[in-house]
Design a protein that fits this description.
Structural class: mainly beta
CATH topology: 60s Ribosomal Protein L30, Chain: A
Number of helices: 1
CATH architecture: 2-Layer Sandwich
Number of domains: 1
Radius of gyration: 15 Å
Shape: globular
Order of helices and strands: EHEEEEE
Helix content: under 10%
């Protein structure tokens, strides 16, 4: 186990508007404020969702990507890092320098008429219906 003691820095609350590109806006904000490490809490709903639902096999690199085109509620918890190289989950991406990586695990409701369905996985994109996000920066 590795341990790193951190202190709480700034706290931000972001309110996303309908139609916003969730990760586009969130990444822009994290870069603008130079948030190098932190926790992210997400509450709200998406009109369209891109997610990684899990692995197809025990190899753990053959992920199941899904696009959902209907309104879904979500609850997410994640972290902010600035890795040297893009994580495998981002797909075929290259960086010339470290970039913010906002890694969010989520629970997602079923779509309209599918109230018994709940999906869990990684949020990889989405168009906002209405979302409130809290960021707790660590310094």
């Amino acid at each position: 186990m590795r341990v790193e003691e951190r202190k709480l820095g700034r706290i931000f609350q972001l309110v996303f508007d309908e139609g916003d590109d969730f990760f586009g806006e969130l990444n822009r904000f994290v870069k603008e404020k130079n948030i190098r490490a932190g926790s992210v809490f997400v509450f709200g709903a998406l009109n369209k969702t891109d997610m990684i639902a899990g692995f197809r096999s025990m190899e753990c690199y053959d992920i199941d990507r899904r696009h959902l085109g209907d309104r879904r509620e979500l609850l997410g918890l994640g972290n902010i890092t600035w890795p040297e190289k893009p994580p495998t989950a981002l797909g075929d991406v290259t960086w010339s320098e470290p970039q913010p990586y906002i890694h969010i695990h989520m629970a997602l409701s079923g779509g309209p008429g599918k109230t018994e369905e709940v999906l869990v996985g990684h949020l990889s994109g989405g168009q906002v219906q209405g979302i409130l996000t809290d960021i707790y920066e660590f310094v």
